[in-house]
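ok trying this again, last paste got cut off
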Amino acid sequence: MHATWAPHEKHGQLTAKGDLPDTVFAFPKQRKEPLTDAKHVRNAVARFDQVTDVSDEERALAFANIKKAAEHYDVELTETSWRDLGVHPQAHRKEAAAKALKTKRAHGTIKKTSAKAAATRKR
């Protein structure tokens, strides 16, 4: 698979996701997982299996883009194939998040976190 990724850096300026060209994304068609620096490359690797509604060909292209960006930003990849990163997106993420929220509310950790956040905002 031929990578489409190309470096894009606006030094000294913050850029919005909409300002970035398609060539900066691991998944250019979906404009998912921007690869603008080493941190974003590592993040794309970690979240690779969370991207939904993409074909195997799009995953292969994304891995080629990640690999090219990793070389550019000196990020060491131990994976040699996109299949090493995970193939199955987490189909029940929303249900799992809802269950976690319910558990946190039951244990009272939501209230503690909210109170702490409110105290921080008052400062």
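PB: full thing came through this time. DSSP finds four helices and two strands in the chain.
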